[in-house]
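I am writing to request your help with a piece of structural work I have in hand. What I wish to show you is a protein chain and, alongside it, a tokenised description of its three-dimensional fold. Could you please explain, in whatever detail you think fit, how the structure tokens follow from the sequence? You will find the record immediately after this paragraph.
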Amino acid sequence: MLRQEANPYSVRRRQQEILREARRIAVVGLRSDPIYKSYSRTQKLIEHGLEIAPVIANCESVLGLKRYGRLSEIDGPIDIVQFYTDGKADMVQTAREAVEKEAKAFWVENGAACEGARIVLEGAGVVVIEYRSLLEEYEIMLAVRREIKAGFNVEPLRRVSECMTRYPVTVTPAATIASAFEKMKKGHFRHLPVVDENNHLLGMFSESDLRLMHPSPSAEPDRKALERFAATPMSDVAPSIRFPFCRTRLWRTPPI
């Protein structure tokens, strides 16, 4: 199975294949209270026809499903283990159990895999996916599938140039994180092209980059730290500017 050190394009393609073929997902850290995102997102996945095996403590059932106390208690194979970091489950132990269940992917829904879990998972060839919403990725995949099917049925020779965004909103590497985020929020974009002074494409700036660049993922930073972070040029901290179209782990943190 593919290791994470492989070509980023191959890794991304493998992730898409796993998501496309997934039928059974174990949700670890699912909350039984509807106010939590894990509840509403899992409910949506069920509506899309996926089989969900909730791993949750101190609860008889959730969303009408039989619950399991541990991943190892689930009968049969699991395609994806979705891990919510705001739950109380031990990530390293869950990673070991995911390997035993021969899961294809370990999806950390709202954070990153800890080093211990990463060593266990990558050592067994399990694909680790971080900082992305499984529901959003799945719904994007379904939407693309519908568009392709409709396009092929109606206009099999339709060109990309007919439906692309001709004049996209862009930013330069010197733009601050705050200004880039404001453009994304105003235009409802998930990605922004980064261009040089000659308008040549250098890379892409995404929501995932924003999550990775947070100055203090484990705690709320103070106001001054946030202000300095927001004023930091993207070229100092955004990995995908230096490595176009690749999702890489942050290798340089912003000055605080």
User: Anything to note?
Assistant: The first helix runs from residue 8 to 21. The chain has a mean pLDDT of 77. The first strand starts at residue 24 and ends at 28. The radius of gyration is 20 Å.
